[in-house]
């Protein structure tokens, strides 16, 4: 889950600083995220040429959950298509996506996740919301198990999980 208004981690002006920031950003990306990047590239490289054009880049970045506007996609193509072929390879795509992952604010991501659960926009995750999410994820949980999950983390004992309680859950389980 990713969002708009992200600044680029690399500005391309200082090559040594860029390499250092690239290395730091790459370390911040999980194995699962790297696998998602590879899978996205493979999906949008449908002809298996090992490269993607401007349109494929734009769609792939959006499919990964990040906002990208036409001018930004064009600027990225210009920056990474050093041979001016109209295409970028996997390494360039991976670097672009690593930058985006590294620029994420974990609290923003937690809030977006909360909003996905809070379908009726009441500022709380109800039993009904949790049951819907479990069903959509293919989890076979009984009503008793779902109520138990809410009871375990419902600090204010109102029967629902509010945003503060949700953030606490995410921090406790290191899922952010």
UniProtKB/TrEMBL annotation:
Residue intervals of the EF-hand domain: 32-67, 68-103, 105-140, 141-176
Keyword presence, Methyltransferase: no
InterPro entries: CALM/Myosin/TropC-like (IPR050230), EF-hand-dom_pair (IPR011992), EF_Hand_1_Ca_BS (IPR018247), EF_hand_dom (IPR002048)
Record Pfam families: EF-hand_7
Record keywords, A-Z: Calcium, Metal-binding, Repeat
Any single Gene Ontology cellular-component annotation: myosin II complex
Transferase in keyword set: no
Region (Disordered): 1-21
Biased composition (Basic and acidic residues): 8-17
A molecular function (GO) term: calcium ion binding
PANTHER family assigned to the protein according to its UniProt record, in alphabetical order: CENTRIN 3, MYOSIN LIGHT CHAIN 1, 3
Protein name, as recorded: Centrin-3
Gene, per the UniProt record: Cetn3
């Amino acid at each position: 889950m990713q969002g708009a208004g992200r600044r680029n981690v690399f500005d391309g002006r200082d090559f040594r600083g860029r390499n250092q920031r690239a290395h730091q950003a790459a370390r911040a990306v999980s194995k699962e995220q790297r696998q998602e990047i590879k899978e996205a590239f493979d999906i949008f490289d449908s002809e298996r040429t090992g490269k993607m054009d401007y349109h494929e880049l734009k769609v792939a970045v959006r499919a990964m959950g990040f906002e990208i506007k036409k001018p930004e996609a064009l600027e990225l193509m210009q920056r990474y298509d050093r041979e001016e072929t109209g295409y970028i390879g996997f390494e360039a795509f991976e670097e672009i996506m690593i930058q985006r992952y590294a620029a994420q604010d974990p609290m923003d991501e937690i809030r977006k996740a909360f909003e996905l659960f809070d379908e009726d926009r009441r500022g709380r995750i109800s039993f009904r919301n949790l049951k819907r999410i479990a069903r959509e994820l293919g989890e076979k949980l009984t009503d008793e198990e779902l109520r138990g999950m809410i009871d375990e983390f419902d600090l204010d004992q109102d029967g629902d999980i509010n945003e503060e309680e949700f953030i606490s859950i995410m921090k406790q389980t290191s899922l952010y």
